[in-house]
Write a structure and sequence with these properties.
Layout: E1 2-7, H1 10-26, E2 31-36, H2 38-43, E3 46-50, H3 59-64, H4 66-83, E4 87-91, H5 94-107, E5 112-115, H6 128-134, E6 137-140, H7 143-151, E7 157-158, H8 162-168, H9 177-183, E8 191-195, H10 200-214, E9 221-226, E10 246-248, H11 251-256, E11 260-264, H12 267-275, E12 279-283, H13 288-298, H14 306-311, E13 318-320, H15 326-338, H16 340-357, H17 362-376
Parallel strand pairs: 1-2, 1-4, 2-3, 4-5, 5-6, 6-7, 8-9, 8-11, 9-10, 11-12, 12-13
Amino acid sequence: MRYFLIAGEASGDLHASNLMREILKVDHKAKFCFFGGDLMQAVGGTMIKHYREMAFMGFVAVLKNLKTILKNMELCKNAITDFQPDVVILIDYPGFNLRIAKHIKETSQLPVYYYIPPKIWAWKEHRINDIKKYIDKVFTIFPFETEFYKKHSYAVDYVGNPTVDSVANRPLQNQSFEAFCTKNNLMPKPIIALLAGSRKQEISYCLPRMLEAAAQFKDYQIVVAGAPGIDAAYYLPFLKTKNTPVIFDQTYELVANASVAVVNSGTATLETALIGTPQVVVYYVMLGRLAYIAKNIFLKIKYISLVNLISERETVKELIAHKFTAKNIETEIDLILHNADYKAVMLADYDLIRAKLGSPGTARNAAMEIIKELKEE
């Protein structure tokens, strides 16, 4: 069969490439055409446009590049027509993908599936109407996401969570603490890991407060996880001493060897939980308390971290907006390090989260369901 895939970001490129690889194991004659990236290209097929030419983040960036975005949409529509696929598979990237889905449904009978659907359970809930109109099948990756769609009377298939696969397949799982420290020229002292985010703006807002809080624990060494694509020199102005190392390309190993992690909200919070390291979650929001009040009005969710959303309770402390202070981080780190019962409850909830998410094999499950659906068309 012929598969047209659209991934507009680096994470989508990763998830789509894994899906393509699993489809090939079942459909050996599969042909791929896609908007995506290097990982998808490595699997094989025809790349029409690289996601680097599509990833415009924020309202202002979208306005500035509106002409390019519209050209990309037209290019995508024409490529689908030329390729004549059996199915179009969308991966996240909702602003672009839902418009393409609408075009397909208004001009053809081609099935459209969504793998890694948009986070409409958090905001823009009205997009469920577009999903119902233009998407034939959604493959969800969170249990609470599955329940959200059921609430809206839309049948979905839960296929597992890609982060479970990433953590389960991570390298050096049996590496000793001593080996990790020796490899990275660290002291033989317990570690407080700081994961300040993947973008420069996030790092500049989060890292100073993280460092200030962690510095209060003299018996521990602070180690910063370097983000992919961020130059090491960017971190230097934030580091008050040369004794605070920034380690790149070893975030899983760092978290696994840390006594506690301070984590900027995002997928890293779930990765940290699955690895099993106690954590405190932080998230910077402009306008502090006012933004916190606005969050409760506009967001449809009680928590912001994936850990708490999955466990459906406050498994990890969330310090957001005006609550994100060095003193509050310090208090939480102290609780984790010195209150055994507090730490034990968190780790027990981690077990609950693992059970809810299920076993590895997300891309394989999605591929099997997609092929099954197509055979029933």
